[in-house]
Amino acid sequence: MDWIVPLILTVITASTPLLLAATGELITEKSGVLNLGVEGMMLVGAISGFAVTVSSGSAILGILAAIVAGMLMSLIFAFLTLTLMANQVATGLALTIFGVGFSALVGSGFVGFPLDPLPSLSIPVISTIPVIGPILFSQDFLVYASIAIVIATGWFLTRTRAGLILKAVGDSHDSAHAIGYRVIRIRYMATLFGGAMSGLGGAYLSLSYTPMWAENMTAGRGWIALALVVFATWRPGRLLAGAYMFGCISVLQLHAQSAGVNVPSQFMSMLPYLATVIVLVIISSDYTKIRLNAPACIGKAFRPAQ
């Protein structure tokens, strides 16, 4: 138990930013929009949250700043793709490149600043229960928020009228427009939600997982979050399981290196990304399942009839 509990705790923290960003992207893609700029939005959210927290001394303000920063980044994407009809794939890639450069520029003055991680919400008595207590009842509030958001997303998509409308827009924007739904407005809102969650995931990285700022600190997590949506076949429940699976792979390669496993460190470092590729190949081989669950209009531009 001396090493199992710390290992599980590390897996939880490693999975949380993936879960937050992937949940936002799931809602975005359910509306029929493909935003490949998750990595850039996470980086901008990470530096915004860190900079505001260091400057103000308030982690809450930092988290709010990260959410707003992610939404602003997604608003740029939405304006270019939904209003100006730019190509979604090219615009998303450009957004990531912009986010990498912009975050490095803003963060150049915050490298090396110390910061206390987000406090754990220890529940008296319960959190002292061996094994279960530290794992389930001694996390910071963003860990609990990430799980609650996934549950709320599943309920929203399956139990609410707004969720059904969102899926209708993603499956057939022409039909949704024909019966009176504002396709562009709905996609704007879904894209903004995706940006907010990506910014929140970035804030978790810089405020809790590794409470510091380092250039390009997401290290490809935005791309893993994108792959997670496909891995989960656009289902929130599978998204939760997938995020924790990838988090486990990321942590295990670190523990293997520290344990002196006789494998090149470069190979161990690439394990999470290798696992991503393998999972995507396996999922893509079942085209029927992809076709049944993927939004039919994903990535397709929509221009309302005049």
Automatic annotation (TrEMBL):
<keyword id="KW-0812">Transmembrane</keyword>
<feature type="transmembrane region" description="Helical">
    <location>
        <begin position="239"/>
        <end position="257"/>
    </location>
</feature>
<feature type="transmembrane region" description="Helical">
    <location>
        <begin position="92"/>
        <end position="115"/>
    </location>
</feature>
<dbReference type="GO" id="GO:0005886">
    <property type="term" value="C:plasma membrane"/>
</dbReference>
<feature type="transmembrane region" description="Helical">
    <location>
        <begin position="33"/>
        <end position="53"/>
    </location>
</feature>
<keyword id="KW-1133">Transmembrane helix</keyword>
<feature type="transmembrane region" description="Helical">
    <location>
        <begin position="135"/>
        <end position="157"/>
    </location>
</feature>
<feature type="transmembrane region" description="Helical">
    <location>
        <begin position="6"/>
        <end position="26"/>
    </location>
</feature>
<protein>
    <submittedName>
        <fullName>ABC transporter permease</fullName>
    </submittedName>
</protein>
<dbReference type="Pfam" id="PF02653">
    <property type="entry name" value="BPD_transp_2"/>
</dbReference>
<dbReference type="GO" id="GO:0022857">
    <property type="term" value="F:transmembrane transporter activity"/>
</dbReference>
<dbReference type="InterPro" id="IPR001851">
    <property type="entry name" value="ABC_transp_permease"/>
</dbReference>
<keyword id="KW-0472">Membrane</keyword>
<feature type="transmembrane region" description="Helical">
    <location>
        <begin position="213"/>
        <end position="232"/>
    </location>
</feature>
<feature type="transmembrane region" description="Helical">
    <location>
        <begin position="188"/>
        <end position="207"/>
    </location>
</feature>
<keyword id="KW-1003">Cell membrane</keyword>
<feature type="transmembrane region" description="Helical">
    <location>
        <begin position="263"/>
        <end position="283"/>
    </location>
</feature>
<feature type="transmembrane region" description="Helical">
    <location>
        <begin position="59"/>
        <end position="80"/>
    </location>
</feature>
